[in-house]
Amino acid sequence: MVFRVVRSFRIGGIEVRLDPSVFVLVALVVWVFTTWFREDHALPVAALMALIGAVLVVLTTFAHELGHALEARHRDIEVVGITLLLFGGVTEMHAHGQTARDQLAVAVVGPYVSLLCGALFGIVATFAGDLLPATAAAPVGQVAGVLGWWNVLLAVFNLVPGAPLDGGRVLRALLWMALGDRMRALTISVRLGQVLGVALVGFGLWTLTRTLAAWVPALAFGIVGIFLVRAAGSELSNARMDATIEGWTVAQLMGPPPTALEARERLDTIDLSLHAGDADLLPVTDGRNLIGVIEADRLTSLSAGERAGLVAGDLAEPIGEVPTVDLEDDLHTLIDRFQGDHHVVLVTRNDRQVGALTEREVAQALERLRRDRGRRDPRPTLAAEAV
Ligand SMILES: [Zn+2]
Question: Are residues 191 and 123 located together in one domain of the fold?
Answer without folding.
Answer: yes
